[in-house]
Give the backbone structure.
Amino acid sequence: MQSKQLLIALILCVCVFSCKQEEKPKVEPVEVIIEPEPITEFGFILKDFIVKRDTIKSGDSFGEILERNHIGYPRIFNIAENAKDSFDIRRLQVGKPYTLLCTNDSLQTPECFIYQPNNIDYVVIKFTDSIETYKGKKPITLVERIASGIVMNNLSETMESQGLPYQLINDMSDIYAWTIDFFRLQKGDRFKIVYKQRFIQDSIYAGIESIDAAYFQHKDEHFYAFNFEVDSTKNISDYFDENTKSLRRTFLKAPVQFSRISSRYNLNRRIKYYGYRLRPHKGTDFAAPIGTPILATANGTVTESTRRGANGKYVKIKHNGTYSTQYLHMQKQNVKKGAFVKQGDVIGYVGMTGNTGGPHVCYRFWKNGKQVDPFREKLPAAESIPDALKAKYTEFIKPLKLQLDNIQFEDHITDIASQGKTITSKI
């Protein structure tokens, strides 16, 4: 009996010893301090500098800005001379922001001047031991969006009522400028758009990157438009329809954007002021505010840029051996005789010079030396996609066309990214 009690005592001792062996020592908690990421901008860590921000004021110059910040003119001249091959410091625009990075001490001596001509691009002029000038871009996020609408009055008002960016309205107008007469849109015409917007730091809006695909229904006709790169080496892209045909035509439908036709080509026009006598009107008048840009409707050479009698200030362009155009009553011309202009170039501005009762441009159109109505002419189209790229194009537009076809005609804007589409970044 005594031996049995001894055995039990021995087993208990072993168990107690084992439990003590398994006990883990207490670990005191350690406070972990996570340092925040340093704030960087333009490639610089801002805490290393005294940062001074301002905008270019009227009368400001690069030299005056640096002089105000205690840099002498010999040094300023040296900086300007070294920077001129990369950036013309005389091109600073009033209202544009700039940043000075200064030494983090009592002297606060500027070491770097950064100029922002727009929200994305910037120019760095660094002048420490050596002088360095270079250009950069802020990181951009691209967000894909869709929009659709039904025209109740005109395209501009319909898109503006949805809060769509004004640039998108202009871009949409440009895409269809050769195929749809936006002065004759009908109530019930419809559109759909797939486009990308740019954002800086995911929140600051920085404009439209591109319209990738569009659809317009006008007079029961269907107009698709797909943005496709036809030359990757030269980064050339254009818009084509679902049948690989270019949406461009040799001539624009109108020489001004978002205007209205106040008087059409009419050889039988009679005016009450002149006793209802026959006074043919061989042009098309587009009413627009004074100063509105007037665009060349096709490539060509300026044959006249002058002022004459009832025409007032005008420009005439020869496009080829068949066609010429003329733009009357300008406030001022923007081109000289002999200049070559491209379709869409600004050649002047709407005015009231010559014989005119209100601000407008009288657009005249010649075919084989005879003035004709451009809206009744069957104008030639631009080139289609090269045969070698047609198969690639057909595959490229399949998902875009499906996406367009699935968009409902509603007055809305939708952020496709929120539906699981990828948001891409661009540096």
Residues 411-420 have pLDDT under 50 and may be disordered. The chain is about 20% helix and 35% strand. The longest helix spans residues 2-22. Helices lie at 2-22, 62-68, 73-83, 155-161, 166-175, 387-406.
